[in-house]
Amino acid sequence: MFTVDIKIDGEHYKKIAFAKPLNIKKILKENIENKENIITCKINNKFVNNTTIINSETILEGISRSTIAGDAIYKNTSIFILCKAFSSIFETDNKLVVEHSIGDGIYAEIINYTFSEKEINQISLEMQNIIDDEMPIEKVEVTSYEAEEIFAKQNRDDILKHNTHSTIKLHKCGDFYDYLIGQTADNTKFIQSFEIVYHAPGLILRFPNRHSNRINGKFRLSRKLFAAHQEHDKWLSILGVHFVNAINIAVKNYKITDLIQVEEALHEKKIIDIAKHITRKDDTKLVLIAGPSSSGKTSFAKRLSIHLRVNGIRPYILGMDDYFLPRNLTPKKENGDFDFENINSLDLELLNSDLQKLLNGKEIELPKYNFRQGIRESSHKKMQLKENEILIMEGIHGLNDVLSSSVPFNQKLRIYVSALNNLNIDAHNRIPTTDSRKIRRLVRDYNYRGHSGEQTFEMWDSVREGENKNIFPFQENADFMFNSILTYELGVLKKYILPILHSITEYSPHYSEALRLWKIVEHIYNIPDDIVPTNSILREFIGGSVFNY
Q1: Cα(96)–Cα(86) distance, integer angstroms
Q2: Are 60 and 43 in contact (CB under 8 A)?
Q3: pLDDT by residue (tens digit) across 325-369?
Q4: For the segment 506-546, what is each residue's pLDDT rounded down to a tens digit?
Q5: Domain, as residue range, for 30
Q6: Residue 103 belongs to a domain
Q7: What is the number of domains present in the chain?
Q8: Residues 334 and 316 in one domain
Q9: φ/ψ of residue 368, rounded to 5
Q10: Are 151 and 12 in a shared domain?
Q11: Which of 329, 372, 382, 435 has the greatest number of beta carbons closer than 10 A?
Q12: Three-class SS of residue 205?
């Protein structure tokens, strides 16, 4: 006799005693209502197959599609099915590369090839057939030699380049094998909804809303964001880097310093171009910089300020945080917590009044917010803009026109900063932009904010929720997009992030996520700090910057 404590999405569901060992599939079938919503399970915070036998006291957690973790698994499974469908239709000398997210989907293409609409329809039909056949997705362990033979037949020369393990876990569906860092569902039947949009030269695989499980209307391409990704693709071509393997070869052959210098120069060129645009546009008086967490906004603002000064313009940074409303007027979330990321937590009336005065050449007294007491105080500091002086404001609401509604459009320029990653582990394992930012945030919080890895993981979902509400819906309002990603950065961050990830024990609900991030950085060679320039955006996270933060 043993008991199983069943949880659903982290909440206690029921505790049941069993007289004999059972597999998870049977336990779910006999004891959980709406079991079809459970996309995968964990035992003691580790993902397991539904064929796993339970024969002792344990905690079994069902993960539904509506959770962030379940949503990621749904997307991983959809991508896996896409790759299987592609392999059934195309010859092995064609390689589908899963590149980056865009809107509610991911963009994929064959390098130097343009899909036809007929081919897109074939892939979509084949995906649906695979789903309708309810094919099991097995996790199989093979030797490194066996893996090499399997992928040689599939012409996957991009995969497992620097594997150091004697055995490797692969995902298998029918006669199709793939190596995946993320988790998938145990069966193709869990993918109830998807859509493929033709976007030459590639395709966009759309995912349904995780709450309704339906595709949200007609696809709208975020053109500026897509262009920023395509620009980074061109940078990767200049660098000769598309997969992590190329970075590792540069490290191994002592050429990583050259790669870093070229990439940092590409950053510098982009910042110089933006500064030139501001300088030529005589009526620009306010530069608004916005972007999600850990995108390098502060370093970008400081580097832009330097180039504006070179061009004869003196920038002044106006602190958005000093315009918070008193604590008793701050909006609250549904759970009762203060919602400091809500735009209405700012005194928009005072902010717009001050902006109007400043841009009309009048003097204002700068506010100062006391965060401990939750009140605004007098700073006893004055500000007045003179000729060839402009304002720079950095914060999450910079792209929301409500923030600066008193400023005419011709007098403001909006810049979106984010770490848009196009570097892949291999053709089917991309490194999501969100993961790049999460790793940056984990390192910075640990080094400079006194937060443990556990604390940063704990707050991350809330951070993402705020970004989805307050930043991403406005990103297309930007006049410029600056991609702060550095393809070599994970090699530098590896030495910092691994101890943080190892501190997350198997008793933590974030253990599986820490393990997934560990699997990403495991593929990358270490890169020393001393070859990172002191003005690099990366220095914002590892220290040693020439800028004061």
Answers
A1: 7
A2: yes
A3: 999 899 988 888 888 889 999 999 999 999 999 999 999 999 998
A4: 989 999 999 999 999 999 999 999 999 999 999 999 999 99
A5: 2-64
A6: yes
A7: 3
A8: yes
A9: -140, 125
A10: no
A11: 435
A12: strand
The residue with tokens 């595709």 is: 215
Question: 96: closest CA among 105, 106, 138, 161?
Answer: 106
Across 424-454, b (16+ Cβ under 10 Å) vs e yields bbbbbbbbbbbbbbbbbbbbbbbeeeebebe
Q: Which residue has the tokens 């049941």?
A: 16
| Residue 22 located in a structural domain | yes
Fill in the DSSP letter of residue 190: G
Contact (CB, 8 A) for 490 and 236: no
Residue pair 428/83 in contact (Cβ under 8 Å)? The answer is yes
DSSP state letter for 368: E
Q: Are residues 485 and 380 in the same domain?
A: yes
- pLDDT at residue 160 is higher than 90: no
128-135: long-range pairs with CB below 8 Å, 24+: 130/81, 130/84, 130/85, 130/173, 130/188, 131/81, 131/188, 131/189, 131/191, 133/188, 134/187, 134/188, 134/189, 135/173, 135/174, 135/187, 135/188
Domain match, 238 and 374 both: yes
Q: Show the CA angle centred on residue 282, arms to residues 279 and 284, nearest 5°.
A: 85
Do residues 348 and 411 share a domain?
A: yes
